[in-house]
């Protein structure tokens, strides 16, 4: 059991910590509005990924064999992520509040970040493909597939939280260097461009 958990954890962490749209936005949220917003984004992305894993384990894998579903998901995800890329690139400097500029409505900002994390992860084709691979490797071969699926969902939730959280922490560390509005604008543009590039690679 220990070996299985370690294998699941390593697999899930490698999938969660590698660069991609979710982690690009994690940096941005980490730098934007304080710990609460960053944690909310990480939580949204992690819960969403655990749900994706569960859906794959419940038989959702058949969708990946339907060309119309795969193409539809890719373009829907790309449209949403490009919308987010534009929002990030054009965000005003005050949207990246450093230590001295916490947002006035922190709770609403956190809810928006929770939503962004959940939607970005659920519309990310990489998440579905990694989840499907994990189901094939760690769940289906087990004698008790239902218990293995529950374990894999729990491990994936924790690993995603750790992986995306590392990127959000990097954003928080960058926040100190973004006190000047000009730097904030360039940071916004860079994050928006990186997000758009990640979408382009996803469609390539």
UniProtKB/TrEMBL annotation:
Instruction: Respond yes or no to whether keyword Transmembrane helix is given for this record.
Output: yes
Q: Which GO terms describe its biological process?
A: cysteine export across plasma membrane
Q: Which UniProt keywords apply?
A: Cell membrane, Membrane, Transmembrane, Transmembrane helix
Q: Does the keyword Membrane apply?
A: yes
GO-annotated cellular components: plasma membrane
Please classify the protein's predominant subcellular localization into one broad category.
membrane
| Xref: InterPro entries | LeuE-type
Where is the chain membrane-spanning? 36-56, 149-174, 186-203
Q: How does it sit in the membrane?
A: Multi-pass membrane protein
Taxonomically, the superkingdom here is: Bacteria
Question: Which Gene Ontology molecular function entries are recorded, alphabetically?
Answer: amino acid transmembrane transporter activity
Q: What is this protein called?
A: LysE family translocator
Organism from which the protein derives: Ideonella dechloratans
